[in-house]
Description:
Layout: H1 3-15, H2 18-25, H3 32-42, E1 44-46, E2 61-63, E3 66-68, E4 72-74, H4 88-98, E5 101-104, H5 112-118, E6 123-127, H6 134-146, E7 151-154, H7 164-169, H8 184-187, H9 199-207, H10 217-221, E8 228-233, H11 236-244, E9 249-252, H12 266-277, E10 283-286, H13 292-300, E11 305-308, H14 310-342, E12 355-357
Parallel strand pairs: 4-5, 4-11, 5-6, 6-7, 7-8, 8-9, 9-10, 10-11
Antiparallel strand pairs: 1-12, 2-3
Helix pairs in contact: 1-14, 4-5, 4-14, 5-6, 11-12, 13-14
Amino acid sequence: MSPALHEYEAAARERLAGPVWDFLAGGSGTESMLSAGREALDRIRLRPRLLVDVSDCDPRTSLLGADLAAPLGIAPMAYHRLAHDEGETATARAAGEAGALLTVSMFASRTLEEIAAAASGPLWLQLYWLRDRRPMIDLIRRAEAAGYRALVLTVDAPRVARRPRDVRNGFAVPEGIRAVNIDPSLMSASHTDRPGESAVARHSREQFDPSVTWEDLAWLRERTSLPIVLKGLLTEEDAELAVKHGAGGIVVSNHGGRQLDFAQPAMDALPEISEAVAGRCPVIVDGSIRHGADIAKALCLGADIVFVGRPVLWGLAHSGGAGVLSVLRTLMEEFEEVMSLMGAPHVRLFGPSGVTLQ
């Protein structure tokens, strides 16, 4: 990865308590997916075109009506205060300054309103489907009032998968850090540590609704005017169903390697999904994005933008909002350089002919 991102990762690992680092960095099962995503990206090679006027490369794009400085957003991640006391407000300021989209987790450790007040760029709100739907409705209403522009429903987590590091550590969310947008009575299991058990996984078994199907999306659409983006798709079959059921966008994702072990890496799934969607809604991809060239590869394979996850928390742990801003700008500057060297001065020029698979 880029030297800057590598330095932030090393600093975060040194500064964060061991169980917190394991919670942020770990994967499910054998943790095979932590390397599989990067391996999928590394198999892709770029095919540059030469003697193109690249004196004025323009990385700007737009997504669901939001103008972005580059095809880059921040994936939803819970509890940013695990990395830095300012948490999501620092992340929001940095995202706005960089011109990136921020997706706020429903388990954010700052209120939706505090985050919105700190933001100068577009915000989306991520949701899990809870057994009790009333907190979801409350969050949607608050997000609408605060100016959030879309909802991101995570659909690959009917429960949190077994993550061996968290089990080994008996991980529970530390006292003083809470999902402040949710009633504390619904979050208590996340803070109750038991040896040999993940409190986060136990909370998901208690609160997540594993019975939700495609038909339930109509209930959600009836309760908001915001676009509903579905996160966690890995097959063309589900992409077709997403479009059929009115999805405003799709995030191709394997949850940072934290859900189904041995799943297809998101970048391998991207071509079939982008082909199935055929422009009917935006397609986003996340997973192991560590270089500006990764953004170019994703665009060539059909993504409209990419989401970056863990490196944002590394930057936050290193130096708060300044670290997040540096991570985002590093990726954007690398991407603009790739645009020049690829002979693609505009985002729309990236397409299937720009890559080959090893």
